[in-house]
Design brief:
globular, two-stranded antiparallel ribbon, mainly alpha
Length: about 500
């Protein structure tokens, strides 16, 4: 259990070293960032094995026993999220070796990137509500700066809008934490859950749940709290767009909602109904808004809103199969949406534009980018046997089993709409006649291709191996950690 703090210590140490040495030794930035993320990937897979063999683990910071002290918790859901976040982060840092050469002060990018990663890992492993908020703010503030990294007018405007909406979300979350603390007299999640189980529910707990839904809903860009995302994600460098849509909105939004609503406060039928409603609204609004876009990254941003809707809908269904589908789609979306944003960065890197009206016929000039984009777009559209097909199918079956036939129909229709606008993207960028001004376009550098190829392979094997490998190794343990509900408190306090 002593290695649990390393998920925060390693990226923080990397951020310090890069900020201190990176300006003088530029190649050191790439080396340190890739080394740090590679170590984190290794530790993440080790955490999966530890949880499988030893069950839930608790680390007491400084040796102080909670609720007085702070603890870090490693369970099935934690290890699942750590693998998702750190695997994507490692592939993004490989991609950034060449991609970020276009920007000045590369060391500043890596410093902020490592701070954002430290914040996300901290949110995942912490067992304390206030520290969850602190880590959430570290990740958020770093992401605000990264969105504005290009320092052009569009980037600065998007970052300001993102920051304002992020601050509003943080206010809702902090107010919810303060009210929970006033009601339970503790900040430790397990202790808080135990106190709530003793005291029972009240109108105050219902109000706190609404505050968390609004706060974390804003962080996850769930409709109607989505207004910041279509501006922020396209404006950021492709590496950051991949992190924002791939993992950040899931950690700061979806994961926090799952942990607090299921394991601390306790899920109720009313909250489940609200989640299903928000999920359906997000699926439909994101899909219809994506159809009319001509900017590649803006279309991908609206697509993220739609796909987050699938996850929220499945969480609202609340059955074991629904939770399994939500978590499976979460990791799938992290993979194929990161891939698609890296593809969009590769197209812009080679052509200098991401406007569909100025592109076309690039299949012969960018074969690796074209092939990986096809795999990513077909996976997110739910085409078998790719990974996205199975997670969407599980969500639809879960809705049917729970008697929500209309919701299952909506999920299927949105899948067809998704296929429609991704076919529009694929044909608009890679098929048709090659424009004369694009005749000299060349494929992107090796490091960028490596990341795209690995993510493409994950989309394929995620579909082929999900039953024998993913389900047994990752998904069952993570699903069980959610379904135990407030028994989380008994398990954590029993390990202290």
């Amino acid at each position: 259990m002593n290695f649990i703090p390393l998920f925060v210590i390693i990226p923080l140490a990397a951020a310090f070293l890069i900020s201190f040495l990176g300006k003088r030794f530029r190649p050191l930035c790439d080396f340190l960032s890739n080394l740090a993320t590679l170590i984190l990937v290794g530790l993440s897979f080790c955490s999966v094995i530890l949880v499988k063999n030893s069950g839930l683990l608790v680390y007491k910071v400084g040796g102080w026993i909670p609720p007085i002290g702070i603890n870090m918790v490693l369970d099935g859901l934690t290890s699942f999220m750590l693998v998702t976040v750190n695997l994507v982060a490692w592939l993004v840092t490989i991609y950034s070796i060449s991609y970020m050469e276009r920007y000045t002060s590369k060391w500043k990018f890596y410093t902020l990137f490592m701070l954002m990663l430290a914040g996300m890992n901290g949110v995942i492993v912490t067992g304390d509500m206030f520290n969850l908020f602190v880590f959430l703010e570290i990740a958020s503030i770093a992401s605000y700066a990264l969105v504005a990294f290009g320092v052009e007018g569009e980037e600065l405007e998007a970052a300001f809008k993102y920051m304002v909406m992020g601050v509003v979300a943080s206010c809702f979350i902090l107010m919810g934490i303060a009210l929970l603390y006033s009601y339970t007299s503790t900040l430790n999640m397990a202790d808080m859950s135990s106190v709530l189980a003793t005291k029972g529910s009240s109108r105050l707990i219902g109000f706190i749940s609404v505050l968390f839904l609004m706060g974390f809903g804003l962080k996850a860009a769930v409709v109607p709290f989505h207004a910041w995302l279509p501006d922020a994600h396209p404006s950021a460098p492709a590496s950051i767009s991949a992190m924002l849509s791939g993992v950040l909105i899931k950690v700061l939004g979806i994961y926090c909602l799952i942990r607090i609503l299921f394991n601390v406060i306790g899920i109720t039928p009313l909250i489940m109904s609200i989640l299903m409603t928000l999920g359906v609204l997000s699926m439909l609004a994101g899909a219809f808004l994506a159809i009319g876009q001509t900017d590649i990254k803006r279309m991908l941003a609206y697509s993220s809103i739609s796909q987050i809707g699938y996850i929220v809908l499945a969480l609202g269904i609340g059955t074991p199969l629904g939770i399994l589908g939500a978590l499976f789609h979460l990791i799938n979306h992290a993979v194929f949406k990161s891939l698609l944003f890296l593809n969009s960065g590769a197209v812009e890197y080679s052509t200098g534009t991401r406007d569909l009206n100025k592109l076309g016929g690039l299949n012969s000039r960018l074969p690796v980018t074209s092939s990986s984009f096809l795999i990513g777009s077909m996976s997110i559209s739910g085409i078998p046997p790719l990974s996205g097909f199975f997670s969407k199918l599980i969500i639809i079956i879960a809705a049917i089993q729970a008697g929500h036939f209309i919701l299952a129909t909506v999920a299927a229709v949105v899948g067809i709409l998704t296929l429609g606008y991704y076919l529009k993207l694929q044909t608009g960028i890679f098929f048709g006649g090659l424009k004369e001004e694009l005749s000299k376009v060349k494929e992107v550098p090796l490091t960028m291709k490596v990341s795209m190829i690995v993510l493409s392979v994950l989309c394929i094997i995620g579909g082929i191996l999900w039953a024998p490998v993913l389900r047994e190794v990752f998904l069952y343990a993570a699903t069980k950690a959610v379904l135990i509900g407030k028994e989380y408190a008994i398990l954590v306090l029993g390990k202290i």
